[in-house]
Specification:
By secondary structure, the protein is of the alpha+beta class. It is 42% helix and 37% strand.
Length: 153
Amino acid sequence: MNPHKRVKPFIFGILLILFAGCQSSSAEPAIEEWKQEIMQAETDFAQMAAQDGISNAFRAYAAEEVALKRRNKLVIGKKALFEEYDDLGVNPDVSLTWAPDFIDVSQSGDMAYTYGKYVFSKRDSLGTMQSNTGVFHTVWKRQEDGSWKFVWD
């Protein structure tokens, strides 16, 4: 048997392994970059809620196909979201703050999710701020223009 016939498949196998290794390591920097994009979207979203009102922020960052679970019911679509948040414009008696504790992005960079803690505060009829804390989970989808909008909250 010709020794060159055995060497060629071996070299091909080594090259294939090296190529595959290069592919996975080049995807990691992109994922980290996408995670930073999501962190920026979350930060901008929260800042908008604080400055321009909760309803304006949710309207600005929601995708057309958004779905939310509120008070044990589903709110589906941007029109329903507008109705849900209609009374939470710029209001000094209501605030919502949050920050993600965890972010992950799909290998393709088109979907992501976050979770973390939130604090919702509202002034009661006696003028005392009452706060509710909890955990949020948001699913983000990259839009045609490259921006991120949430599709689940």
